[in-house]
TrEMBL record:
<dbReference type="InterPro" id="IPR004839">
    <property type="entry name" value="Aminotransferase_I/II_large"/>
</dbReference>
<feature type="domain" description="HTH gntR-type">
    <location>
        <begin position="36"/>
        <end position="104"/>
    </location>
</feature>
<dbReference type="InterPro" id="IPR051446">
    <property type="entry name" value="HTH_trans_reg/aminotransferase"/>
</dbReference>
<dbReference type="GO" id="GO:0003677">
    <property type="term" value="F:DNA binding"/>
</dbReference>
<keyword id="KW-0663">Pyridoxal phosphate</keyword>
<keyword id="KW-0804">Transcription</keyword>
<keyword id="KW-0805">Transcription regulation</keyword>
<dbReference type="Pfam" id="PF00392">
    <property type="entry name" value="GntR"/>
</dbReference>
<keyword id="KW-0238">DNA-binding</keyword>
<dbReference type="GO" id="GO:0030170">
    <property type="term" value="F:pyridoxal phosphate binding"/>
</dbReference>
<dbReference type="InterPro" id="IPR000524">
    <property type="entry name" value="Tscrpt_reg_HTH_GntR"/>
</dbReference>
<comment type="similarity">
    <text>In the C-terminal section; belongs to the class-I pyridoxal-phosphate-dependent aminotransferase family.</text>
</comment>
<dbReference type="InterPro" id="IPR015424">
    <property type="entry name" value="PyrdxlP-dep_Trfase"/>
</dbReference>
<dbReference type="InterPro" id="IPR036388">
    <property type="entry name" value="WH-like_DNA-bd_sf"/>
</dbReference>
<dbReference type="GO" id="GO:0008483">
    <property type="term" value="F:transaminase activity"/>
</dbReference>
<protein>
    <submittedName>
        <fullName>Transcriptional regulator, GntR family with aminotransferase domain containing protein</fullName>
    </submittedName>
</protein>
<keyword id="KW-0032">Aminotransferase</keyword>
Length: 486
């Protein structure tokens, strides 16, 4: 009998006879109490040995009789495991010859454990966490949401358990229309509202509808890095348009051959400016003259601390502006429900594209969100969180003044869940961010979100929505000590 040269020990027994896991020839472990069948356990182990090269190409496997004896299982179990390997092409078998490993199967393992260890170390021993776009999930009414979700699923008509189409649930679109009127003061026909899996996914679909070969999308610089990557990953060229404290500088649009313009006019990300009426009008004129659309991302503008939310650009020209909104920051990111307000002429394209990607959002969360909106629970939740975030914003500004004196100033409007802070004369490049990370300080710079590098090296982004006031004070103190030490 020819056995693999890797079989060094015929038997290896476990220490305790009570342990259900037994170790045998080739180091195969079988667990007789597992829900996974013995044949599949044996198949998995042999397959793994073949893939990682412990059993080399051309080497024979033990005979089914010998391996069955060593593992104390029936020969049929081994035959079935070998048949699975044979069916998938891991081994070759011929009459009167041993079963041998096929050629070209070895795949050396990557050091995934090291990679995972490095990733986990990134967030070990965090001393200050200033990540942006992080709502405080501790204050979300989970019990209330669970009750609404259960009730919505229990009462949902059976036909909605199937494919309900690319538009979204009718009742949710109607409630979003009411929400937009209450919170933004804009009237939207529910049939112009389409449900998406968040704002970034909405941008994926919109760009797929509008893209024209040989043209670029005009995009604020700096901008939301997630949106920029979404476009670049699709191979679409991006033309950066600089911003100032008021948002996109529209004079830089002249002469550009574009298929769309992407803006965050109510709260520019990341600098926080509000696009003034004159620039908004100029932006719409440019879009009309060039026959293109404006993609308006209404980024976390629900949380404005010195007045009502800014009216969307959409209200000035619903046929030229595509509005993208989301409930990720208002409720919780895992909800993955956003929405797009589309001009009528784009409805057909949207439905076709969505139908041939993922068809629809799950209906249960849509129904629950519709009830959350209908009962005005979202209005009360937003009001509560707005007060909370407003207090934290004040605490952050006070902590900056106490720790850094007058060596800094903030950018933008009092809106959102982060502050852009400029430290004149300082530079916060990649090396600085890396040192912060290794020292337990989690943050991003404006430079990180810039398309054209080198213009905003002196600005940091400090998220505060998820931090208690004592965490904010401690974090700014840690940041001050770190900056003065380098």
């Amino acid at each position: 009998m020819i056995l693999s040269k890797l079989v060094l020990l015929k038997y290896q027994f476990v220490i305790s006879s009570l342990d259900p896991v037994e170790v045998y020839m080739l180091g195969i472990e079988i667990n007789r109490q597992s829900e996974v069948s013995l044949k599949r356990q044996i198949y998995h182990k042999l397959r793994d040995y073949i893939l990682d090269g412990r059993i080399a190409a051309g080497e024979p496997l033990p005979s089914t009789r010998e391996l069955a004896k060593d593992l104390a299982v029936s020969r049929n179990t081994i035959c079935e495991a070998y048949d699975m390997l044979l069916a998938e092409g891991f081994v070759l078998s011929s009459q009167g010859a041993p079963t041998r490993v096929a050629e070209g199967l070895s795949i050396p393992k990557e050091s995934s454990e090291e990679f995972l260890q490095k990733e986990s170390q990134s967030y070990d021993n965090i001393k200050a966490d200033f990540r942006t776009g992080q709502p405080d999930l501790r204050y979300f009414p989970r019990y209330m949401w669970n009750r609404i979700l259960y009730k919505a699923m229990d009462e949902m008509p059976l036909y909605q358990f199937g494919y309900s189409g690319p538009d979204g649930l009718t009742q949710l679109r109607e409630e979003i229309s009411g929400w937009l009127f209450r919170s933004r003061g804009i009237k939207v026909d529910p049939c112009d509202i389409f449900i998406t899996v968040g704002a970034t996914y909405g941008l994926h679909l919109i760009s797929g509808m509008l893209y024209e070969e040989g043209k670029e999308i005009l995009m604020e610089d700096p901008c939301h890095m997630g949106m920029l990557r979404a476009l670049r990953n699709k191979g679409y060229p991006v033309c950066p348009v600089p911003v100032d404290e008021h948002g996109m500088i529209i004079e830089h649009l002249d002469g550009k051959a574009a298929w769309a313009i992407y803006v965050t006019p109510s709260h520019q990300f990341p600098l926080g400016g509000i696009l003034p009426a004159g620039r908004r009008a100029g932006l719409i004129r440019f879009a009309r003259e060039n026959g293109i659309y404006i993609i308006e991302d209404d980024y976390d503008s629900e949380f404005r601390y010195c007045g009502e939310p800014i009216a969307p650009l959409y209200s000035m020209d619903p046929q030229r502006v595509i509005y993208v909104g989301t409930f990720s920051k208002v409720l919780f990111p895992a909800l993955r429900i956003g929405y797009v307000l589309l001009p009528r002429q784009l409805h057909k394209k949207w439905r076709y594209l969505r139908t041939h990607t993922d068809v629809q959002n799950p209906p249960f969360e849509q129904a629950a969100l519709a009830e959350f909106l209908r009962s005005r629970k979202i209005d009360r939740h937003v009001l509560k969180m707005k007060r909370l975030y407003g207090e934290r914003r004040k605490a952050l500004l006070l902590a900056l003044a106490e720790q850094f004196g007058n060596t800094w100033h903030s950018w933008g409007d009092a809106t959102g869940l982060h502050i852009a802070v400029e430290f004149p004369g300082m530079q916060f490049g990649y090396e600085f961010l890396h040192k912060c990370k290794t020292n337990g300080i989690i943050l991003k710079s404006v430079e990180y979100h810039s398309i054209c590098k080198g213009k905003h090296l002196d600005k940091l982004l400090l998220g505060y929505g998820h931090m208690e006031i004592d965490e904010i004070n401690k974090g700014i103190s840690v940041l001050n000590k770190f900056i003065t030490s380098i």
